[in-house]
Amino acid sequence: MKATVFGTGYVGLVTAACLADVGHDIVCIDVDEERIETLRRGKVPIFEPGLQELVASNAQAGRLRFSTNTPIGVRFADLFFIAVGTPPREDGSADLTNIFSVARTIGEHIDCYKIVVDKSTVPVGTASLVEGTIQQAMRARGADHRFDVCSNPEFLKEGSAIEDFTKPARIIVGTDSETVRKTLQDCYAPYNRNHDKLISMDVRSAELTKYAANAMLATKISFMNELANIAERLGADIEDVRKGIGSDPRIGYQFIYPGCGYGGSCLPKDMRALAHAARDAGFTAELLETVERVNNAQKHTLFHKLEQAFDGDLRGRRIALWGLAFKPNTDDMREAPSRVLMEELWEAGANVAAFDPEAMGEAHRHYGNRPMLIFASSPQEAAKGADALAVCTEWKQFRIADFGWLKANLRNPVIVDGRNLYDPAQVRRHGLLYYAIGRGEPA
Ligand code: UGA
């Protein structure tokens, strides 16, 4: 099959590469010339395990091409995936400028029946607005062609995007057209094996399903973080509680890890957009708004623990920071808890010596000119001579730490762990003060 993918961000690029990999003929369109040039040179501008190889091999095979020429993209195929960014506006609502710009171009160049698939995360009702925009642009030039707009949200996670795309838990298709359903069924067939994972529904329900899934995940995390804060005050260990409740299959073990707050480009933005959409519809989403508030507060927890360790005075201290990305296996620092911590530390007069296996480039981009940030080239370099160590991201290489070395090389024996990576008894045996999430105070 031939398909055009509009947008070469996480969702667009992964969709395009994975569809090309099973033999579809794909053209990727992006208005960012530099990005397209980079992709044409065989370089992927984002860090995502396996994506570079997948893009390169399919580009080489001629099944994956890149262009900034939108009209060519419209003429190339009869199946379009819209996967452009929908950044948050100041008020939390999703900015749909990029979506409508693609829709207009489709309307300006449509020449036969086309299927338009919304893959970006978009508020309920967007498909019908896209339809209206295409109609308007088409009519303005006196043309009249049939087309369908459907919702097919993507559920991939950064860091395991290819695995998520190729082994989907579900393929949501929001449409009332049997032609659309059948076309997407065929398109995804190579990845829809063993049992049929395609769930079809009306378009508005499909749009809401995407937000509902992320809202559920965010709620689980904030629930656990709140429970961790209670456990800490009641002298219980949240890690035991986590195992205790996770063993109930109705609750499950996934997404109940307490920590220093959820970040990334999706959960926080989608929570705000959903709450905003609810408000616009005259309903206050109390639970969703609280989940987001609990998360924002949780991002301050490591700073408070450091303040506590240093009697409220962090001036002139040097804090080692392991992990800048919002989670492992990505270089993405959008809404990362590490940023809240660093900014609070600077405000309090402390310096930060940071190390991340992949996000140092991103850190340079965000904070390159900050004199109070030292870019370390290894975890050890960050920690050596620091007053305390804070851990923000659970990268594999931080999971095993040499506590003897840390005791000898930290100026103060303080570890503040935002991901509960270590066994408190083992850390404390080395004479280190260990502050974790929901695991009691250091003895
Ligand atoms: C999230 C969803 O998991 C995907 O299903 C969805 O497709 C995607 O958003 C999207 O809308 O595009 P992602 O943002 O890549 O994926 O990251 P997650 O793996 O969901 O992690 C989000 C945050 O939650 C991270 O900061 C992570 O550290 C935190 N987290 C996750 C916890 O604090 N505890 C947990 O138990 C799990």
From TrEMBL:
Catalytic reaction(s) noted: UDP-alpha-D-glucose + 2 NAD(+) + H2O = UDP-alpha-D-glucuronate + 2 NADH + 3 H(+)
Pathway linked to the protein: Nucleotide-sugar biosynthesis; UDP-alpha-D-glucuronate biosynthesis; UDP-alpha-D-glucuronate from UDP-alpha-D-glucose: step 1/1
Source organism of this protein record: Borborobacter arsenicus
The enzyme's E.C. designation: 1.1.1.22
Binding site for NAD(+): D30, R35, T86, T121, E158, K269, R334
Keyword list, A-Z: NAD, Oxidoreductase
Gene Ontology process terms (BP): polysaccharide biosynthetic process; UDP-glucuronate biosynthetic process
Active site, per annotation: C266 (nucleophile)
Annotated ranges, domain UDP-glucose/GDP-mannose dehydrogenase C-terminal: 320-424
Pfam (any one): UDPG_MGDP_dh_N
Residues that coordinate or bind substrate: F155, L156, K157, E158, K210, F255, I256, Y257, P258, G259, G263, K327
Name recorded for this polypeptide: UDP-glucose 6-dehydrogenase
GO MF, any single term: NAD binding
NCBIfam families cross-referenced by the UniProt entry: NDP-sugDHase (TIGR03026)
Its job: Catalyzes the conversion of UDP-glucose into UDP-glucuronate, one of the precursors of teichuronic acid.
Similarity section: Belongs to the UDP-glucose/GDP-mannose dehydrogenase family.
